[in-house]
Amino acid sequence: MNELKNKTAFISDMDGVIYHGNRLLPGTLEFVNWLNEHQKRFLFLTNSSERTPRELREKLSRLGIDVAEEHFYTSALATADFLSRQRPGCTVFVIGEAGLYNALYERGISMNDNNPDYVVVGETRTYSFERIEKAVHLINQKGARLIGANPDLTGPSEHGIVPATGSLIAPIELATGTKAYFVGKPNPLMMRRAVKRLDAASRETVIIGDRMDTDIIAGVEAEVDTVLVLSGVTKIDDVQRFAYSPQYIMNGLDELVTKLI
Q1: pLDDT tens-digit map of 103-141
Q2: pLDDT, tens digit (0-9, with 9 covering 90-100), for 144-179
Q3: Which residues, other chains included, contact 73 with Cβ-Cβ below 8 Å and sequence gap of 6+?
Q4: Which pLDDT score is estimated for 237?
Q5: So which residues are the catalytic ones?
Q6: Is 179 helix (H, G, I), strand (E, B) or coil?
Q7: Does residue 86 register a pLDDT over 90?
Q8: I need a surface site. Which of 49, 72, 156, 221 has the fewest CB within 10 A?
Q9: Annotated domain spans of the chain
């Protein structure tokens, strides 16, 4: 466990690790306090594209935790970074929420519902047949390429499991015969961007997550040590189904904190 304590950079998932919906999970406040007290570099890395870093900061503040905006990196930001490098000044048709729209605007990417370069899909609560129909038309008839902010089929909430981007984008993939390119975890691109933002080396970094199929595989492929917490999607019986394993398995952040102190 000393090896874990000596890491200089910590990357943590959010949903299922530090909270479920609007319910803070045990150990979160103590974990953030430990990071600050020991002057660790840290980043909250979330596959959710719904909220902006400011909204995430405000959410944690309401839950009793003060964290600056610079400590958040979302799949929306990663998607905007990716597109701005692939095709600077490109245009997009978006199915998503404010976090995705704002990230794209900030990277000089404009909205276009007539002849966009890309159709970009993230989590949304305003999902409709009309938006799906429009996206299918733009891909089939106008040649737009399909981008997903993340491949998650589901995500945890305080009320249980809810559909995520992978489920919402599936009808568009099926109707167009197109496979989306997903930017978020487990794409190593997002993990490398996170490590770079922390100005850390992979060997100095650890990722904490609740999903074997996104968080843990992202760490494995980026050669970053991994901690699986069982407070979210993946349960202990699920672990053996995967060909890779996390370095550490904890019940939640509360157990991790007891190991770090």
Answers
A1: 999 999 999 999 999 999 999 988 999 999 999 999 999
A2: 999 999 999 987 666 777 889 999 999 999 999 999
A3: 43, 44, 45, 46, 53, 190, 193, 194, 197
A4: 97
A5: 13, 15
A6: coil
A7: yes
A8: 221
A9: 2-47+185-260, 85-182
- Three state DSSP letters for 5-45: HCCCEEEECCECCCEECCEECCCHHHHHHHHHHCCCEEEEE
CATH classification code of 85-182: 3.40.50.1000
Q: How far is Cα 242 from Cα 15, in angstroms, rounded to an integer? A: 21
CATH fold for domain 2-47+185-260:
Rossmann fold (3.40.50)
Tokens of 49: 């594209």
Give Cα separations from 255 to 104, 201, 226, 252, 261 (angstroms).
38, 26, 15, 6, 10
Q: Exposed, middle or buried by CB within 10 Å (0-12, 13-18, 19+), for 141? A: exposed
Say yes or no: do domains 2-47+185-260 and 85-182 share a fold: yes
